[in-house]
Amino acid sequence: ETGVTQSPTHLIKTRGQQVTLRCSSQSGHNTVSWYQQALGQGPQFIFQYYREEENGRGNFPPRFSGLQFPNYSSELNVNALELDDSALYLCATQTGSYGANVLTFGAGSRLTVL
Amino acid sequence: DQQVKQNSPSLSVQEGRISILNCDYTNSMFDYFLWYKKYPAEGPTFLISISSIKDKNEDGRFTVFLNKSAKHLSLHIVPSQPGDSAVYFCVRNNDMRFGAGTRLTVKP
User: Fold this and answer.
1) Element (H, E) at B58
2) Interface with A, mutate which of B46, B53, B54, B102 (most A CBs under 10 A)
3) Among A3, A92, A93, B75, which is 20 to 30 Å from B42 by CA?
4) For testing the chain B interface, which of A102, A104, A109 should be mutated: the one with the most B CBs within 10 Å?
């Protein structure tokens, strides 16, 4: 148990639909980031939120968007789903203001797009 | 664009022997590299890091070596245990770029 909880654990959508994935942290860390892990690849950085503001973004299109709430929970929204969006989506909180940014991950939400 | 490369998708070793997992990078601008391990149905967990100003960092059975001239780092696990069987990711700290991972299997 890492203290980072993601929901749902699995879901199936069809192409063109929209999906919302959720993340909460028991510790209330104010930095949260989201990653996409496709099959056979390492996690790819989608974006990061710090105190409810987007604080960095990877190479993902605008249809990937997020929110962070005052209680430090977070959402990842993906619009107009494509088949290639099928992946494990990981949420992580971050410790370490200086030095290495150690991430604590949730177990992930596995999205299948048909 | 594989700026962080783990060229071995899998590695199998005998319990008690050394496991060596390799990672190469192309961009020399970094402050830290980190290693994470991932068990099935769990998120990655932090294992060990190394600063760009060091060439070695050790934590118990785990040691990471950094060779900046070769743009190469390696994670050594000695002795390897069956519980070490997992996927290991090399991560560049500046942009949180992950390698593709190496699946380690430690056989009893």
Assistant:
1) strand B56-59
2) B46
3) B75
4) A102
What backbone torsions phi and psi does residue A49 show, to the nearest 5 degrees?
-120, 140
Measured in angstroms, the CA of A79 and the nearest CA of chain B are apart by: 24
* B34 contacts A45? CB cut-off 8 A: no
Whole-angstrom Cα distance, residue A56 to residue B74?
29
CA distances from B21 to A80, A85, B16, B97 (A): 39, 29, 16, 17
Give the helix ranges, DSSP H, for B6-107. Answer: none
Peptide bond into B82 cis (omega under 30): no
pLDDT in tens, A47-87: 999 888 998 999 999 999 999 998 889 999 999 999 999 99
pLDDT tens digits in sequence order for chain B, 108 residues long: 569 999 999 999 999 999 999 999 998 888 899 999 999 989 999 999 999 999 999 999 999 999 999 999 999 999 999 999 999 999 999 888 999 999 999 999
Collect all residues of chain B within an 8 Å Cβ-Cβ radius of residue A33. 96
Name the minimum distance, in Å, from the CA of B103 to any CA of chain A: 10
Q: Would you tell me how many other CB atoms lie within 10 Å of the CB of residue B106?
A: 21
